[in-house]
């Protein structure tokens, strides 16, 4: 059926069908683990996650080969009436990262989430796998959405998938953390929805591409972008809205923490990028982006200082997430200060590169911390002396991830910082250089606090409660190596990130 | 006087009367001293008020479906309010607090 | 002044009230109520937009109406999840407060910055 | 028109007043009751804006089921029913928050007054494409055809909320039944009411969903009414809440998504694409999906109010 007003050739872009697969696959996973939960879940999950890798590769390949964004119009109803899915370079990269980390988490997921042959489904096994798929569909929906309300639903999917993961262990502390997280997330999404309403009321469309053509500066746009950004910042745990993150991320089981810290917070960040770069094309106000950058700088400093003061490994990693999220927001002032379009590209690449390399490094770190905590039964840093000799693979993986967060060459983190610094230099905003360097020093400091006792010789070896699975150690190591590789093969991902960008600074161009 | 005018007058009188009873019931709810008397004011006055409004509206709607819907609504509200006030009263009788 | 404008001003008031209560209210149950007041304000704003978009014989633009219906159900889901968390927390600790540790943290943070 | 404007002013003031009371009163129970009133007044507001579909959904979900949920919660945390202002931020913090919210409200008022004239609208597009869907109610067409993707994902949100609520159970009760906290012994009048209301409610729910294709109504309003009846049946003790481990229950809960997804995928080969319906069959397919959705919504809303399982199957 070709609806009136729809252009058939665009209505079902054949190559765009792979975008649908990225949504349908995890949905099937949710339904199957809801209905036939039990001992088949894990095997089924791993198959679906492996197919997911192929789908992600297909999207990246499609975007790369065609050189422009893939689109798919749901139901053949063209915007503004209908909803369009769109994968540009940013989406393709984030979908691929999500698929890789999902697969790793699926393999890593500890035995408490598996169901033995003779046992019935447990609460944790039931919830965990459904929520894993839920995070997957939510993230893919965020990355593919090209419609503000569709993105709202995707944001809510993220919330409803992430909050129960925080409280899955059911202790009072995690319940508290989950409730606080939920309340923050709800404020965030309702503010985002308010901004959506303002934009629709003024421009009569929710489609990002159409909106960017119609949008004109004015009170309504200014107000809607402010409330949306504030809401999304609350969901991303950007300083000063970061208080919910450390207890939530450190209280969850390690497999869940890895998802929350590496992916979930990037969802709302990604939508912020969409709004500032794609909706507000060329309207970004330099002063406003300085505020966003200042919040990022605050996050880097406060997160770093707080991480230095932690005595528990998982809390330290969680505070390091607060700090690392700060770097993401430096891209807004750097892009707004750019006078040529390549400067915008540089800033955008720096931010997205940080998102990706932090995702790998942080997932590896939380999983490594989980292995350590499983083995010795606690995560008190002071009592982990000599762990490096007893769990060399895990410690090595943790070390690589730490080097990437600090920004030591040749890791992905180094490359990110290098991009940020060159963007700061080229736009003459020297103050961000200070922040980036200070952040690196702080990261060096708090990571040293973990690594130094870990590599010290202990008089008595630590007693392990349970042996550490070699396979799980290798998964962690592979993720850490991804964080490392990001710094060595920067060419292709950088070009891929640029595919489908409608550039960018209309204001910057004469 | 045509039938239409008569129906109009019926509607005006009945709906105004109904509104008055609602008002009286609400004043009772706010001014009476304890739960039982408030309950009394509310249920009595509101049921009469609703009945009057229904009578006033019946000539305004299409026969038979919309009118039947109105009547069903009225009956359901009567049953629900009777039962809920009964439940509140019973709770009080068994020694709940009267606040 | 017409009907949509009046209800739009009402929506603006509800949004401010709800957000204020959400920020300052310490009790989670009251925060949940505030979230609902705020959410309904946003929905009402959509309704104003819908009504203003009346055209071609329709009394309003159907798109925002459909968005609100979706939004109401999502808002209810959120309320249900929050209430379940709160009740479980209450069973576990005898209190619904999610704040005490937050205040401690913010205090210690103020101390070092 | 002036009487209409006067009515709107009064209604708007009343809504604001009830909202102020909801937020300001110290007694949480009174606040919840006021919130239910607020929901009902908002339904009137929606009728005032000529949005009957939203009014129905708001009355059923926003006021009704949410009210039941919050009242139940309030009764269970009775011991701390008064709002504790000592713990709230100091007056400087409150003042800052107040100023911020006042600024937001003022900005919004300005935006409302400055909204463009004529207002941008998709009503013409929505009407023009209506014939292709075979539906008469444009709101249903938006939900089930134009923006079907959102509706489907939102069904997933609803299911996830339930999974989240269930995941808060104690491990020992897993597989068991939800308990609504602890229900009191049902009273005889309540049982009588339920017996009278249940058949009427089921008919009303089905009717609302059925007319939704062409008139105000639809799966959400219908499902909400079915759930309300279901909750009443539990309260009256006429039936037990199904166990979370029951496969039948899980099929009912997910059948809306399953049908939606199946129709969507079938559209790839049999129609213009994902979530497109084949020409001439749009309406029957939509109705079938809506039947499944109404069932799923009713069951999910009811179980969301019932809470996590708190009673194991084996005593």
How would the global form of chain A be characterised? globular
User: For the terminal residues of chain A, how far apart are their CA atoms?
Assistant: 45 Å
The number of distinct structural domains of chain C comes to: 1
Largest interface: C-D, 82 and 98 residues
> How many helical stretches of chain A?
20
Quickly give the structural class of chain C. mainly alpha
* Helix/strand order of chain C, N-terminal first: HHHH
Query: In this structure, how is the largest beta sheet of chain A organized?
Result: 2 strands, antiparallel
Helix content of chain C: over 70%
Q: Tell me the number of structural domains of chain A.
A: 3
- Helix/strand/pairing class of chain A, anyone? mainly alpha
Round the Cα radius of gyration of chain A to an integer and report it: 22 Å
Outline the structure in words.
The complex is a heterotetramer of chains A (510), B (99), C (113) and D (315). Chain A is mainly alpha-helical and 510 residues long. The N and C termini of chain C lie far apart (50 Å). Chain C is mainly α and 113 residues long. Chain C has a single domain, classed as Helix Hairpins, CATH 1.10.287.3510. In chain D, strands 1-2 form a two-stranded antiparallel ribbon. Chain D has twelve helices and two strands; from the N terminus they run H-H-H-H-H-H-H-H-E-H-H-H-H-E. The chains are: A mainly alpha (510), B mainly alpha (99), C mainly alpha (113), D mainly alpha (315). Chains C and D meet through helix 1, helix 2 and helix 3 of C and helix 1, helix 2, helix 3, helix 4 and helix 5 of D.
């Amino acid at each position: 059926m070709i609806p009136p007003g729809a252009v058939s050739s665009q209505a079902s872009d054949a190559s765009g069908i792979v975008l649908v697969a990225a949504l349908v696959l995890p949905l099937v996973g949710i339904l199957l683990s809801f209905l036939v939960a039990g001992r088949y879940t894990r095997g089924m999950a791993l198959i679906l996650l492996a197919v997911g890798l192929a789908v992600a590769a297909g999207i990246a390949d499609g975007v790369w080969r065609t050189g422009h964004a893939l689109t798919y119009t749901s139901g053949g109803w063209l915007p503004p009436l209908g909803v369009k899915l769109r994968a540009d370079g940013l989406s393709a990269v984030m979908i691929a990262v999500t698929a890789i980390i999902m697969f790793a988490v699926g393999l890593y997921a500890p035995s408490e989430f598996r169901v033995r042959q003779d046992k019935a489904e447990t609460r944790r096994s039931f919830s965990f796998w459904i929520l894993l798929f839920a995070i997957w569909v939510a993230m893919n929906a965020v990355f593919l959405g090209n419609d503000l309300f569709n993105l709202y639903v995707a944001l809510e999917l993220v919330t409803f998938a992430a909050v129960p993961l925080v409280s899955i262990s059911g202790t009072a502390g995690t319940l508290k953390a989950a409730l606080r997280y939920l309340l923050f997330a709800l404020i965030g999404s309702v503010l985002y929805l308010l901004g959506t309403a303002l934009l629709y009321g003024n421009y009569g469309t929710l489609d990002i591409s159409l909106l960017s053509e119609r949008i004109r500066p004015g009170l309504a746009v200014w107000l809607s972008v402010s409330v949306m950004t504030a809401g999304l910042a609350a969901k991303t745990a950007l300083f000063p809205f970061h208080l919910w993150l450390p207890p939530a991320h450190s209280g969850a089981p390690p497999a869940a923490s890895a998802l929350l810290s590496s992916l979930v917070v990037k969802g709302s960040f990604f939508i912020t990028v969409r709004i500032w770069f794609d909706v507000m094309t060329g309207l970004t106000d330099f002063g406003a982006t300085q505020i966003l950058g200042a919040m990022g700088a605050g996050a880097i400093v406060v997160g770093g200082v707080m991480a230095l003061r932690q005595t528990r490994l998982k809390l330290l990693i969680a505070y390091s997430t607060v700090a690392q999220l700060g770097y993401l927001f430096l891209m807004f002032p750097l892009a707004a200060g750019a006078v040529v379009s390549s400067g915008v590209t540089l800033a955008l690449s720096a931010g997205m590169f940080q998102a990706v390399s932090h995702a790998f490094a942080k997932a590896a770190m939380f999983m490594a911390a989980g292995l350590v905590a499983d083995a010795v039964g606690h995560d008190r840093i002071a009592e982990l002396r000599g762990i490096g000799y007893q769990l060399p693979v895990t410690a090595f993986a943790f070390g690589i991830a730490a080097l990437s967060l600090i920004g030591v060459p040749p890791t992905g983190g180094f490359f990110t910082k290098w991009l940020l610094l060159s963007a700061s230099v080229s736009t003459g905003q020297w103050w961000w250089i200070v922040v980036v360097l200070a952040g690196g020093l702080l990261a060096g400091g708090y990571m040293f606090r973990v690594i130094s006792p870990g590599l010290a010789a202990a008089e008595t070896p630590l007693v392990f409660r349970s042996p550490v699975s070699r396979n799980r150690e290798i998964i962690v190591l592979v993720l850490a190596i991804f964080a490392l590789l990001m710094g060595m093969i920067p060419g292709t991902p950088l070009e891929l990130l640029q595919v489908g960008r409608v550039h960018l600074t209309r204001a910057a161009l004469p | 006087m045509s039938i239409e005018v008569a129906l109009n007058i019926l509607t005006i009188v009945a709906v105004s009367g109904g509104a008055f009873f609602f008002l009286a019931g609400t004043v009772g709810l706010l001014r009476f001293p304890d739960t039982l008397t408030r309950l009394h004011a509310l249920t009595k006055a509101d049921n009469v008020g609703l009945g009057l409004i229904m009578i006033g509206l019946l000539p305004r709607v299409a026969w038979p479906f919309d009118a039947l819907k109105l009547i069903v609504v009225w009956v359901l509200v009567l049953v629900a309010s009777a039962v809920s006030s009964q439940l509140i009263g019973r709770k009080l009788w068994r020694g709940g607090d009267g606040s | 002044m017409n009907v949509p404008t009046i209800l739009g001003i009402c929506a603006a008031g509800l949004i401010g009230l709800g957000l204020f209560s959400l920020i300052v209210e310490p009790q989670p149950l009251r925060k949940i109520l505030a979230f609902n007041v705020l959410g309904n304000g946003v929905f009402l704003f959509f309704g104003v937009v819908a009504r203003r978009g009346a055209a071609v014989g329709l009394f309003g633009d159907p798109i925002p109406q459909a968005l609100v219906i979706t939004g109401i159900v999502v808002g209810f889901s959120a309320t249900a999840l929050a209430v379940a968390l709160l009740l479980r927390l209450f069973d576990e600790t005898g209190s619904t407060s999610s704040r005490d540790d937050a205040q401690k943290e913010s205090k210690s943070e103020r101390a070092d910055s | 028109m002036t009487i209409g404007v006067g009515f709107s002013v009064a209604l708007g003031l009343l809504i604001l007043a009830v909202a102020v009371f909801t937020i300001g009163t110290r007694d949480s129970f009174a606040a919840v009751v006021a919130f239910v009133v607020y929901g009902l007044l908002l339904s009137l507001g929606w009728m005032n804006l000529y949005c009957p579909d939203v009014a129905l959904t708001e009355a059923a979900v926003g006021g009704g089921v949410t009210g039941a949920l919050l009242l139940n919660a309030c009764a269970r945390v009775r011991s701390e029913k008064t709002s504790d202002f000592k713990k709230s931020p100091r007056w400087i913090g409150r003042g800052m928050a107040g100023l911020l919210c006042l600024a937001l409200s003022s900005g919004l008022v300005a935006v409302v007054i400055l909204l463009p004239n004529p207002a941008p609208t998709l009503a013409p597009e929505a009407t023009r494409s209506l014939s292709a869907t075979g539906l008469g109610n444009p709101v249903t067409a938006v939900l089930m055809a134009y923006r079907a993707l959102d509706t489907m994902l939102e069904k997933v949100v609803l299911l996830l909320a339930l999974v989240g609520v269930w995941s808060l159970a104690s491990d020992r009760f897993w597989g068991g039944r939800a308990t609504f906290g602890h229900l009191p012994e049902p009273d005889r009048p309540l049982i009588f009411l339920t017996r009278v209301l249940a058949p009427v409610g089921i008919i009303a729910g089905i009717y609302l969903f059925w007319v939704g294709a062409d008139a105000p109504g639809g799966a959400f309003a219908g499902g909400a009414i079915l759930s309300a009846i279901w909750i009443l049946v539990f309260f009256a003790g006429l039936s037990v809440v199904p166990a979370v481990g029951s496969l039948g229950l899980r099929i009912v809960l997910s059948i809306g998504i399953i049908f939606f997804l199946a129709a969507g995928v079938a559209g790839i080969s049999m129609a213009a694409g994902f979530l497109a319906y084949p020409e001439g069959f749009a309406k029957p397919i939509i109705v079938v999906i809506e039947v499944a959705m109404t069932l799923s919504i009713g069951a999910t809303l009811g179980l969301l109010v019932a809470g996590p399982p708190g009673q194991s199957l084996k005593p």
